Amino acid sequence: MALSKQQIAQRIANELQDKWYVNLGIGIPTLVANYIPEGIEVEFQSENGLLGMGPFPVEGTEDADLINAGKQTVTVLDGGSIFDSATSFSMIRGKHVQLTVLGAMEVAQNGDIANWKIPGKMVKGMGGAMDLVASADNIIVAMMHTNKRGESKILKQCSLPLTGVGCVTKIVTNLAVLEVKDNAFHLLERAPGVSVEEIQAATEGTLVVNGEIPEMNF
């Protein structure tokens, strides 16, 4: 059974480590803040100038002045801080963020990512994504394995304008957890009830399968 967006975020949250600073992109990545494992402390950063971002507010408690980079209302934990975007990007470019979680429209087997533009469609700009992928050493992508037409988004080569080159380290989709290395996608885990054969059929890029592939744990 394919994962929901919430389950993708929950699986990515298992990658968090104590005392890490983590940037969450818009879309599925923002949900990661709702699933911090017990026993660890993580500081979530948003490039519009927020450190110490908490989970999404309960309906009716939203504060329109507290937003993330995607203009969604968020919460701020005790001890959180708000500052200008220049300071925020200094933090990103200075490599003070241990993990970046982004959404994507396409990822290639060499680690290229396309997540900001579909030619012919109006966009506001790439936002902070290009700074994030250029500066981060640990990038996890949260995405659907295929598009609405059933075509793979896990590719040999991206067809859309690139956001970053050779930068993605791991991908969590609704079907699988993939590690990007040696110019291939290495299958680490599969969604509960999803077979290796289904993942292979949904993956255009080179998929490496070594041994028995476990199902994800939640």
The helix/strand order is HEEEEHEEEHEEEEEHE
How much of the sequence lies in strands comes to 15-25%
Strand order of the largest sheet: 4-3-2-1-5-8-10-11-12-13
Q: In one word, what is the shape?
A: globular
The number of domains is 1
Classify the fold: give the CATH topology: Glutaconate Coenzyme A-transferase
Distance between the termini: 14 Å
Global structural class? alpha/beta
**How many DSSP E strands?**
13
The helix fraction, in percent, is 10-25%
Overall CATH architecture: 3-Layer(aba) Sandwich
Q: So how many helices?
A: 4
- The overall pLDDT, averaged over residues, is 92
Name of the CATH first level: Alpha Beta
Enumerate the spans where pLDDT stays under 50 for 5 or more consecutive residues.
Answer: none
Give the CATH superfamily.
Glutaconate Coenzyme A-transferase
Q: Give the radius of gyration.
A: 17 Å
Family: Belongs to the 3-oxoacid CoA-transferase subunit B family.
Keywords: Transferase
GO molecular function, one term: CoA-transferase activity
Protein name: CoA transferase subunit B
